[in-house]
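User: Could you check the structure of this?
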Amino acid sequence: MDLNNILGVVLAGGKSQRFGQDKSQVKFQGKLLIDYILNEIVDEFNETLIVVNQPIKFMQSKKISSTRDFQMGLGPLGGVLTAMQWIKKKNKKYKWISTFPTDTPFFTKKELKFFYEKININESKLFFIKNQNTRHNIFGLWSLDLMEKLEVDLLKGERKVEIWADSIGVKIVNIDYKKPDPFFNINTEEDLKKAIKMMNDDKL
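Assistant: Sure, the predicted structure tokens are below.
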């Protein structure tokens, strides 16, 4: 797979309602939570785009840009469409976008490379990661060919990633992992405490 054809996209426009504040801006072991995923992916792509709904802090790099959701309240699918629109608006040549959440501090480029190695781009226009019987819909590879249908379906009111992906056909890539769980995501204060324990246990 030619990574030159892929735009890395971090979806940072969520409301973080269960956490009570923007979790991308939460400090985890002295570093912003969003910077964990950025550190792992920034060198894998020519460019990485962060989709936000308000100004946020993140690690500085000439390879990182940010843009606002074209419309708030549309969830991750709205962020995906925003990234696709950004590519068209900026006259970029990317054919795919690879999406990531802001709240998975244990995800590494090793999982990303394994994901890409298992993909045959002729099999689908959309690929998601699955592990331990859990499908991770934000870790996805989306063809820009989906842009028109996504826009139409969003305007019709479809907001759920899983339902939309199943309706258009999604290929699942299974990834087995070792501890710590690279897909553990921090949604609450309790999750943050668990993550701190996981990191400390991993260092023992």
